[in-house]
Every structure is written in structure tokens, then in C-alpha cells.
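Page 42, continued from yesterday. The earlier attempt failed because a stray header line got pasted into the input along with the sequence. Redoing it now with the clean sequence only.
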Amino acid sequence: MLDAMDRSVYDEEHGLFRDAVRKVFDRHLTPRLDEFEQSGVVDRSVWLAAGEAGMLCPTVPEEYGGMGLDYRYNAVVAEELAYLGSSAGFTLQSDIVADYLVAYGSEEQKKKWLPRFVTGEAISAIAMTEPGTGSDLQGVKTTAKKDGNHYVVSGQKTYITNGQNADVIVVVAKTDPTQGAKGISLILVEADRDGFTRGRNLDKIGQHSADTSELFFQDVRVPITNCLGEEGKGFAYLMNQLPQERLSIALAAQAGAQRAFDEAVKFTKERTAFKQPIFDFQNTRFTLASLKSKLQVGWAHVDWALARHVEGKLDAYEASAAKLWHTEMQWEMVDACLQLHGGAGYMNEYPIARLWRDARVQRIYGGTSEIMKELVSRSI
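This time it went through. C-alpha cells are written below.
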């Protein structure tokens, strides 16, 4: 269990907040996990319940409806979601989109969106990936061309988390295609704009309850004031915010790995073979001992990274290393724990099956493991 460890990175207030988060999940999310897996989307009522409990965007300043808390409160939500085995898109809103608005948004943008992000009345997405462009953000084809006091946004995005639910999308677009990275801007596009359409809710290997979509922009007109921050600074903004996004993924990976381990311990102690619990076989105990050692190291490291981030010291290389190590460890953990379940592990009725398939994308989104290695190597 996540609360079975003495973690100096958190204090008593974070513990009370964690208890409140669990109560909300127990009431509104846990009983409906299978329903959301089938429907492919988390119902907006759960977003509203999370907002009412103060679980969405806790770092947003009080003047914009938030609580002005430190990032450790976001981390609590990320850990509890991952341990539960839910792929609700709360962390994308709290850890990524809201911070873009706080850091770069105009006063008008902040006042319009942040209070609604906090309450869950508005759901957000960020649209980076395109059918032909993944890790190479400089290669995006979507454009935002000036026409008087408007931008005309045209292009296609894919693999967009919260895509079916989103009320507003931060679109990565070229405002000057001749300038490479310096020609990229971030444009806010409201979902009710003419020319904006949602495509399929994509059929994924895992994270079935996360609505992940294709988005289409056909000559969508938005005011110039919908530019987030300065025109042409979009690529720099993306690079500045990536450490927190990657730390968020590392936290979720560590919590998901812990849940997989806990499920394996429970299963091997309850299931018997050859007239004894599976746990009593040396292979089982040695496998679990090795996994527990990795978890111990993982918690120490992720708490170090979290503490550094709260102090403003976590750099892009350290965050990339954290995402690389924790997501790779998570995959090793879930795969080994599924193996300890035997044939039962391949059955969707057991939590380990969901944990296994949901973990696979962790080594891909937010920057693939290969890109993380490339980034870390630059710091050597």
C-alpha cells in the first residue's frame, strides 16, 4: 500500500489530502472502473466530483479559483489514480494544461479557464502529436495563419488525451512555417468553434477509459488573443514544461508498479499448487524479493525527484532520467507480476491484466524511452 511507507517528502497535510482523495475515488471512480473501460471515457460527473473535492489543479493560485498549493498535492492524485488502476485524464489537466495557463496565459485566459479547470466544469487537452509527427515537435504541419485579428487554424492531431471530453484544446501550430522551432506557437481552440471536429475515440491496447482521439481543424477561426503567451515561443514553452510532465509519469509508473507487486503478493499467498501456497516456492519468493528491492530504490528516487521539483531544482535531464527508469521498471514489474499469476494473469477479471496493458504506453508518451536516453546522454 502507498501509505505503508515512511515518505519524508510529504507532511501531515498531504496525508489528510490523500485520505480525502481516496474517499472520492472509492465513491465515484472505483465502482465504475469497468463501466468506463467499456465506454472508453470517464463520465463528466466524476470530473465534477473531483473538482468539488479540490483534487483538480491544486497548484492554481487562489485568485483563479485554486488553492495555491505545492506540486506534491498533484503528486498525491497522480499516485492514487495509478495505484487504483484508472486512466482518468485528471493529471493532464492538473499537471500540464493548467500550468501552461498559469505560466503563459493572459489575465483574460486565466480568468476564463482556470476556475472552470479547478471545478471540473471545463476539461482540457493539449494537441501535439500528428499522424506524421510524434517526438519531433518541430515537424508539426498544423498551421495558424493570421487573417486580420484572427488566426485560421488548419491541420490534424491524433492520440490526444481527453480528446472526446475536451472543452478547450491547446494546439501546437506553426504560425511561421519558415522559422522552424521559432515559428511554433500555442493556440487555444474552444471545442464549439466552427470547423473543429472530433474523430474516433481511438481503440488502444490499454488505458481504455482514457478518451484518446483524433482531432480535426478545418479553417477554424480564433481571435489573436487566443495565442497562449507570445507568438513563436511555443516550442520554448513546451520544453520548459516537460520536466513536470515527465515527473508526473514517473510518479504514476512507480505507484502502478507498487500496485502490481501488491496484487502478486496477495495472489501467490492465496493460490495453492502442489498442496502449498505459490508464495512458498523459492522461485516466487526470490522473484518477489528482487521486485521489492527495485520498489524500495524506486520510491527513494521518485521522492528525491519530487522534492527537487518542489524546490525548483529538477532539470530536464533529471526528469528525463526519472521517466526512463521508472517506466522501464514498471514494465518489468507488471510483466513479472502477471507471470506470477499464471493463466489467471491473462484474464481481464484480474486487476493485474489491466495494470499490465495500461503500463505499456508509459514508455512511449511524454517522450519515448529512446528519446529519454538521447536527452540524458546530452548531459554526460
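Notes: The chain has a mean pLDDT of 96.
Reminder to self: strip header lines before submitting.
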